[in-house]
Design goal:
- Two copies of one chain form a homodimer.
- The first copy, chain A, folds into three domains: 52 residues, lambda repressor-like DNA-binding domains (434 Repressor (Amino-terminal Domain), Orthogonal Bundle); 134 residues, Response regulator (Rossmann fold), CATH 3.40.50; 134 residues, Response regulator (Rossmann fold).
- Helices cover 45% and strands 18% of the residues of chain A.
- Chain A is elongated, with a radius of gyration of 25 Å.
- At the A-B interface, helix 4, helix 8 and strand 12 of A face helix 4, helix 8 and strand 12 of B.
- Chain A binds a DNA duplex (16 and 16 nucleotides) through helix 2 and helix 4.
Chain lengths: 347, 347
DNA sequence: CTGAAAGCGCTTACAG
DNA sequence: CTGAAAGCGCTTACAG
């Protein structure tokens, strides 16, 4: 291997070749104004010819800029909420080159009055960017818009508020996730006929609605022998979810499947365990957490659809930093993959 | 937020507090020898009290060390091989703080004489680390061991050679992947009875064997009404794979499923398309590539099991760097997740 | 066993 | 519109 392959060009090389100073190279590199057109072209030419690629860590070392980001996350106790919070806290450490300090504000998501108050409390001048797991409820959109209008980049996390001015949404395509659930349900039930129950947290939360819609689409189109019952709302409360299952089993003797769109799985599993319907309805739920893993391994759950919260937290940071720098969106870096988990591919 | 939360301690702060020079702080930090016990303790104490965390990018900037890594990859033309090569080439750019130069050497995998010759050609002194997608064939193990004995870190990629001295294996758990395939096959076929055909590339390639074993395990245990046919070997050749399918359909009129363990899917799809068996056997394959995506969307394939080659390439680099630095293995950072893809969760 | 000083490749006031 | 110089937080010979 030629030695010169190992030493890549630095900005000094570029400056020398273009016959300018380091400061001018820096101006061209970072698109700062105040460089004569001709000079700019000379520098660009040198960059091109040397195959120069700026060293991001050196740049960040010199910048020493620290970003302060606020994350608004659900306060309600659930496996997913905890996991998300943990992932958000751990995310800055994975950023090698950028300095980020994050704070977390908890908000009650089901009660959107509480969420609204929390959002209203935020002082935009204190933050370089904000990530919110928000509901799509009245007033929330305006609160997000106010933050954006005050010059703070805002991204929605996990669940989107698409009509707002938030710059990005970081999370899975929830309609697609619902379709995946519908597909698995239909295929696992093969040609059996019967009813399928849906349990969501709240139809004010966008991701729940989208999953429901996706599920219905697929069942209607590809598995018309299945009857989808009206969605029941649990407020993401385990006890309520458990009662919903009891009622479903009682009212629909042909119940052969349950799609749990949101939280409350502990209650659902407990009811099924207690009532032992034969055969047990095929059960598809969201989000891997330790108890859900166990239930999957034990055969109490048939499939889990999961979003990678570590990746979401990481991408939220990357997006916020990109927004602070006015960088264009990198294609496909906001969407997170929809994971399907069976007993044997648990991570 | 207090201002001092934003400014974290630097090694100068540590040096001041401990009453030593920067060089000594560096020695303690990096476990270099030649520091009196008492001095070392003073420094450690200061690090602790200041909550000092070294800045990785500054360290790497100062080091300017460049790693030269060699990747031995399959030469045979296949969607997966191309994708893997592309991922390997792109991986260094994702490493913000480390400088890595990679080279790629192509080797014929099915013909292990050729692979062996390729491995024997490698001059250990030219490389800081080597990643190999190897077969588990005679002589290969010894060739890998020789490289390790010559002081070069070696990791296996995608397919392991567990009896060798390679330091790490980076890839999916292929037995688990086979189990996932078996599970999906069993569930999709529900209670239907019939034969299931398996097509592998070569039983000299470890990942193929492991997938086969995992598949059989699950079918035997959970879906005993399915009959698994003896594995056919295609040498990862599309034409051969297509012929195998024709023969299977001809000899087994009750063929209701096909598990394609490796490459050659184009041939399999073509044969099924031409012969149009009714009903079409449930088809499960590995590795998403553009033609496979299309077939999944068109309904010609029922499920795809995928490994994330970008992640594998990235982890291979991280592992090799860690090995060069004598860092301990980070738990779970070698294993890559097994992705299950249906029509609606394509990335 | 320990330290002073140069340097890694950029950015940032400041001066002109 | 452009440049000289200091500095970001570490590492590395070299000297003692």
């Amino acid at each position: 291997m030629a030695k010169n392959e190992l030493k890549s060009a630095t900005s000094i090389d570029v400056a020398d070749m273009a016959g300018v100073s380091l400061a001018t190279v820096d101006r061209v590199l970072n698109g700062r104004r105040g460089v004569r057109h001709e000079t700019r072209e000379r520098v660009k030419d040198a960059i091109e010819r040397l195959g120069f690629r700026p060293d991001a860590s050196a740049a960040n070392l010199a910048k020493r800029r620290t970003y302060r980001f606020l994350f608004v996350l659900p306060s309600r106790h659930s496996g997913f909420a905890e996991h998300l919070e943990q992932a958000v806290k751990a995310a800055p450490a994975a950023l090698d080159t950028e300095r980020v300090v994050i704070s977390i504000k908890k908000a009650e998501m089901i009660d959107h009055g509480a969420l609204l108050a929390t959002l209203r409390e935020i002082d935009p001048s204190e933050w370089d960017g904000i990530a919110v797991k928000a509901t799509d409820a009245p007033g929330i959109r305006e609160a997000l818009d106010d933050l954006v209008d005050n010059g703070v980049p805002v991204v929605t996390l996990v669940s989107d508020v698409p009509s707002s001015k938030r710059q990005r949404y970081i999370g899975i395509d929830n309609t697609a996730a619902g379709r995946v659930a519908g597909n698995l349900m239909g295929r696992f039930l093969h040609r059996l006929e019967g009813s399928v129950g849906l349990i969501a947290g709240s139809l004010m939360i966008r991701d729940h609605v989208e999953r429901w819609v996706g599920f219905e689409q697929v069942i209607k189109a590809d598995f018309p022998h299945l009857r989808v019952l009206p969605v029941a709302e649990s407020s993401d409360n385990c006890d309520v979810a458990g009662q919903i299952v009891e009622r479903m089993l009682d009212e629909h003797r042909d119940l052969i499947g349950i799609y749990s769109i949101s939280a409350g799985n502990k209650g659902i599993l407990a009811s099924l365990e207690r009532l032992k319907p034969q055969p047990r309805p095929t059960l598809i739920v969201h989000e891997l957490s330790p108890p859900i893993r166990r239930a999957l391994l034990d055969g109490a759950i048939d499939a889990v659809i999961n979003q990678d919260v570590e990746m979401e937290a990481h991408r939220a940071l990357r997006s916020l930093i990109a927004l602070c720098k006015n960088e264009p969106a990198l294609g496909g870096h906001d969407r997170v993959g929809i994971g399907i988990f069976l007993r044997d591919n648990l991570p």
